């Protein structure tokens, strides 16, 4: 009788610890995604100021400026939980920003403008923060995915609604390429 009771207690303790570990991993992944979201919002907030500054010096570069604004709008329109969709949209936005920075190289007065330099430095800092946030999120997603898929955790993960998280990664090879701008 005591042996059966001990086995039941051990099984219950195992279930509680496993469930709590899965909850903890899910919360860390959600926190990590929130970190990415904050940095992406910061970048999106910097873009209008950057575009307006460039527009003052290089107004005839309308196509590049329009691409940046449109890419920003598309990135912000992606639903909050769509990690893969957000990664694609942010990759397109990154490419457009890269082309904008290349265009700015052709305007010495713009490169000397204090406001532009500060915006460019803020954007660079934000890009570094996004990169670190992506790494943190992907690590948290990996840890959650391992817990969800590992035996015997998977016996509890499925019935309690724990699912794998998508990694925040660039899937389009063109997004990895250096932007080419021709004058």
From TrEMBL:
Keyword presence, Transmembrane helix: yes
Protein's membrane topology: Single-pass membrane protein
One Pfam family cited in the UniProt record for this chain: LemA
Gene3D superfamilies linked: LemA-like domain
Segment forming the signal sequence: none
InterPro entries: LemA-like_dom_sf, MamQ_LemA
Keywords: Membrane, Transmembrane, Transmembrane helix
GO terms under cellular component: membrane
Compartment(s) where it occurs, according to its Swiss-Prot or TrEMBL record: Membrane
Main localization, broad class: membrane
Keyword Membrane recorded: yes
Family affiliation: Belongs to the LemA family.
Designated name of the protein: LemA protein
């Amino acid at each position: 009788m005591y042996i059966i009771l001990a086995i039941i207690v051990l099984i219950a303790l195992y279930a509680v610890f496993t469930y709590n570990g899965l909850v903890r991993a899910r919360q860390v992944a959600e926190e990590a995604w929130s970190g990415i979201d904050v940095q992406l919002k910061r970048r999106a907030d910097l873009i209008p100021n950057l575009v307006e500054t460039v527009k003052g010096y290089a107004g005839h570069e309308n196509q590049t400026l329009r691409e940046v604004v449109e890419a920003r709008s598309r990135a912000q329109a992606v639903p909050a939980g769509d990690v893969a969709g957000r990664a694609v949209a942010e990759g397109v936005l990154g490419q457009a920003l890269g082309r904008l920075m290349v265009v700015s190289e052709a305007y010495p007065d713009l490169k000397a403008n204090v406001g532009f330099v500060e915006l460019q430095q803020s954007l660079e800092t934000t890009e570094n923060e996004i990169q670190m946030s992506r790494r943190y999120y992907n690590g948290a997603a990996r840890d959650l995915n391992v817990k969800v898929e590992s035996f015997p955790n998977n016996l509890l993960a499925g019935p309690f609604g724990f699912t794998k998280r998508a990694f925040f990664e660039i899937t389009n090879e063109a997004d990895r390429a250096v932007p080419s701008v021709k004058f």
